[in-house]
Write a structure and sequence with these properties.
The complex is a heterodimer of chains A (409) and B (265). With 409 residues, chain A is of the alpha+beta class. The chains are: A alpha+beta (409), B mainly alpha (265).
Chain lengths: 409, 265
């Protein structure tokens, strides 16, 4: 429906001018609501109101479409100008979100307009509701006169609609709790974002927390400035993963290496005590001059030791970086089912509808930490979001294969 | 060292692909067929290396930076070739093979990175696909921005831009398909690594804005296909947002806490 230049504003069919005006109007309504409403949106939209809102909003869309498909308003809602204007409003708000730091309880003008807590603000909710109804109309229109070549269109638009519905209406039901687990103790309380403790239907008994480490890094420092020597503007840290290394202009030979060691009198010996750290006996050579000695990365209990090569330079060893850290634990559900699991970064464990993530540990204690910080996440709407995401992936692959010419005829 | 043979494989693959690209630009039917042969030979070389490495180390080689680059090379080659078979853009396969060779070169020149540290959050099967699809998306969308700039210039000189717009459109369609995949792979990865698929992390927000800008372009083009000037301008603008998302995010007030900032020593 081409928009003619001399059409009077608000005369049907509506085009870009009317659509954008409505966007601006909705933005101001959102700001007014945000400014004058007393109750925070987060509380209003909490469970079960979020479910009623989802059902009502989607039903309103469907009823409008099936009863008044030919009405100009309904036609407009499924049109490109409405889509652009609704997405434009969402983009504007996302721009604020992407630019301004997000701080809850902000009382400045940014806070009062919802800009510094954008995702919980009225304007954002209104923009998303508008995007949802436009998407719903557009999808219903295509489905009603379905053709096979529209498959990519349906997959991407309906997928997006489903993913947004799951994400937006499901958000109030997402629970993210932090649990401090201690070795040997069974814990079933976890902390909510507001600091309150909550009982969870999963008890965790931490058996052991451990860290697998990379070999330590070596570097040469300037004795007077204490700075690491650079080459081409980059500090020269070298991973000690081989027995001979070249750092800066020094040839380094690792003669002995203990990943867990402590000092006894003048030398280092392998030990298993708390605070044992990597130690290496090293020979450095430059211009025929050779130095030999120990270097030690140090830990919470022991001082690090540098190897003084000469009056100018010393060799230091950095504390090793974690490769993996993980918690071996027993998880117990209320029906007394027990399961031994290993929880590690990128490998969450699923128990009784909750996902348990390895979040953190006592970093001062490092590998001797007997505390493991776990995150427990519960998101009942996740399957809906995933259905949407996988439909969109299908749509994107079809889009790649069809390109412009076959997609938009 | 299991990577001992890498330089030989890398050199062979590079040689095959360089020959393929040279043949591609000498337009003649025969040489074209041979360029296919050489592209496939290069791919076969890298697939063999990845397979041998996998068998030797007894685990999927996806943990270190060097191993990650190996997959970049392989998938850049494979997707580039698939795209070339479908769309016949010579620049597309050249870009893909060029990038693949670049990653081979980085790996061959920095043997120490084979075992370099990679922080636990990045050690995920999603890392490689997430980065690869973005490499393709950014390349295609950059190409579309160049086409748009050329279009603006031609319009300024009052010359015809008839052929440019369909080309820009197709690049955007292909680019957006990769951009969408990148965004979604990122979401799936985030769920596995950080507990939620979307947290409005500043980088996510800007990736979302970039995505919206290109969706806007596609919809406007669909609605009023005649207006070339607006189309070119939107494309240049959208690429500006993409660049902001890529480089600018860390300098914004919102970026104090972002999971996409990887401090490295």
């Amino acid at each position: 429906m081409p928009e003619t230049q001399n059409k009077i504003m608000w005369q049907a069919p509506w085009g870009y001018r009317e659509s954008f005006s409505i966007s601006v109007g909705l933005l101001f309504i959102g700001w007014l609501l945000e400014w004058f409403s007393n109750a925070p949106l987060v509380e209003i939209a909490s469970y079960p109101t979020n479910r009623y809102m989802a059902v009502i909003w989607l039903t309103v869309g469907a009823v409008l479409f099936f009863t008044a498909r030919k009405n100009f308003l309904v036609k407009w809602l499924s049109s490109v100008p409405a889509a652009i204007a609704s997405v434009g409003l969402l983009a504007l708000l996302s721009l604020f979100l992407g630019f301004f730091a997000q701080t809850p309880n902000d009382t400045s003008i940014l806070g009062r307009l919802g800009i510094s807590h954008m995702t919980d603000s009225w304007p954002f909710l209104i923009a998303i509701l508008w995007v949802i109804i436009c998407l719903e109309m557009a999808v219903l229109k295509r489905i009603r006169r379905f053709k096979w070549k529209d498959t990519w269109y349906i997959l991407s638009h309906l997928g997006l609609l489903i993913a947004i519905i799951g994400g937006v209406f499901g958000a109030p039901e997402v629970e993210r709790l932090v649990m401090n687990a201690f070795e040997g103790r069974t814990i079933w309380m976890a902390q909510q974002p507001d600091g309150k403790m909550k009982e969870v239907p999963v008890a965790v008994k931490l058996i052991n927390f451990d860290i697998e480490e990379y070999p330590p890094k070596l570097a040469i420092v300037d004795n007077t400035t204490g700075k690491v020597l650079e080459s081409m503007g980059k500090p020269q840290y070298q991973l000690m993963d081989e027995d001979t290394l070249q750092i800066w202009k020094y040839q380094i030979i690792v003669k002995k290496y203990y990943s867990m060691a402590a000092k006894v009198e003048k030398a280092y010996y392998p030990v298993e005590t708390i605070g044992a750290a990597p130690a290496a006996l090293i020979t450095t050579t430059r211009n025929g001059q050779t130095t030999e000695g120990w270097t030690y990365s140090g830990s919470l209990n022991f001082q690090p030791e540098a190897l003084k090569i000469n009056s100018e330079h010393s060799l230091i060893m950095l504390p090793p970086e974690p490769k993996h850290y993980f918690s071996d634990a027993v998880v117990i559900t209320p029906d007394q089912k027990r399961d031994s699991v290993r929880i590690r970064v990128n490998e969450a464990v699923k128990v009784n509808g909750w996902k348990i993530y390895q979040l953190d540990y006592d970093t001062d204690m490092g590998r001797w930490s007997n505390k493991s910080v776990l995150e427990l996440v519960h998101d009942p709407w996740l399957p809906i979001v995933y259905i949407g995401i996988f439909m969109m992936i299908g749509g994107a692959i079809m889009l790649f294969w069809q390109g412009k010419n076959n997609s938009s005829k | 060292m299991n990577w001992f043979d890498f330089p030989y494989f890398a050199a062979a693959a590079t040689l095959f692909w360089v020959i393929a690209m040279i043949l591609l630009f000498v337009s003649n039917k025969n040489t074209n067929r041979w360029s296919h042969v050489f592209i496939i030979l290069g791919l076969a070389t890298m697939i063999s290396f990845a397979t041998i490495l996998w068998v030797r180390i007894g685990r999927p080689p996806m943990r270190t930076l060097g191993e990650t680059r190996l997959w970049y090379t392989l998938f850049l080659g494979l997707i580039g070739y698939a795209g070339y078979l479908k769309w016949k853009y010579r620049w597309f396969i050249s870009y893909s093979l060029g990038m693949a060779i670049l990653f081979l070169g980085i790996n061959a020149l920095h043997p120490e990175t084979y075992d370099k540290v990679m922080m636990p959050a990045l050690q995920s099967p999603w890392f490689v696909p997430h980065v690869i699809v973005y490499l393709f998306a950014y390349a295609l969308l950059a190409a579309s921005a160049l086409v748009a700039l050329k279009g603006c210039w031609l319009m300024f000189r009052k010359q015809s831009t008839e052929k440019l717009l369909p080309l820009a459109d197709n690049m955007v369609y292909l680019g957006v398909s990769f951009l969408t995949l990148g965004l979604l792979f990122g979401a799936l990865w985030a769920k596995e690594a950080w507990g939620h698929y979307w947290t409005w992390d500043p980088k996510e927000t800007w990736a979302f804005l970039t995505w919206l800008a290109y969706l806007g372009y596609m919809h406007i083009r669909h609605f009023r296909p005649g207006n070339a000037k607006t189309a070119f301008r939107i494309l240049v603008f959208a690429f500006g947002i993409l660049i902001l998302c890529w480089f600018g995010v860390y300098y914004m007030p919102s970026a104090k806490q972002s999971v996409h900032t990887y401090s490295q020593q």
